[in-house]
Amino acid sequence: MSSHLSRVPPNILVLTDDQNEFKKIKLFIQEILGKNSYTIYNLTSTDLHKSSLWIPSCRLLVSSEQFNLSEEALDKKIKSFRGYLSDGGKILSLPSLNDNLERDQKTFQQATLFYHKDKYLFESKYENDSSLDKEKWQNNLVQGDELFYAYLSKENKGTHFISKVFIESNSHESQLFLNDLFIYLFNEYFQLKQIFDSNNLNLKENYIIFSKNKLLQSVNVISKYLDGTMNKEAKISLETTKAENFDHKIYFDNLKTKSMGTIIMYSDLVESTMNSISKYLIHS
Fold this sequence. Notes:
It is built from nine helices and twelve strands. The N and C termini lie far apart (46 Å). It is α/β, with parallel strands linked by helices. It has helices at residues 19-33, 45-48, 51-54, 71-86, 123-127, 176-190, 219-226, 248-253, 273-277; strands spanning 11-15, 39-43, 60-65, 90-95, 104-108, 111-115, 132-136, 148-153, 159-163, 208-211, 214-217, 263-266. It has a seven-stranded mixed sheet with strand order 2-1-3-4-9-8-7, sandwiched between helices. Strands 11-10-12 form a three-stranded antiparallel sheet, covered by helices on one side. It has a two-stranded antiparallel sheet with strand order 5-6.
């Protein structure tokens, strides 16, 4: 069976009903993985139960855990979690920032982590579930500690990772040491890649435009091409450009239309198609 991660878009969903908390978690993830690497959406508790709508497009579900759920709400939440895990999904649970939870602290390598020591509500059900194995997370930063561990599905690659650590300190500032921990975590457990220097990433420099066996490359050439100041017949050597995930020759060899699809803008990484072309107009 193919991995769930191999067939979904780069979407991360954050489960919380509080918009301010969603913004904080989104910013935390972007600081680690980069702003242009994953699209992060809010998933409410109401929409969580509509699993057929979000599971196919979710690479990672980040859940803000509360301790004031009713039994009915908890059962529905666990059912949704198990459905996602059975499809090979990945879940990361974090303590809620809005629940006034008691905060303990530990020091690692001269850095302090603030955490909540109690188990999450769903864990009592997980511990009695024979289809799940509990595994401690160990790396060179934190080893053999109960702050980080995972429940692994025996039947597939589904993983529910538990973090007891708050993403903010008591003064509501980010915990710098936590960023290093989560770089390891995202890479090891969720296969999420970090994009370095993402704030300075100019995606337009990565664009390649193919036009019926001719190729235009580089931000200057593409800008001229799109705003109509460059002849569309201009040629640039194909040897200088590689599109590893797209074979333009095969595409054009199989193209049957006369006009539609004859100009292609391609990039391995695009933050948003709307952001990419909103400033430009292709002239005929």
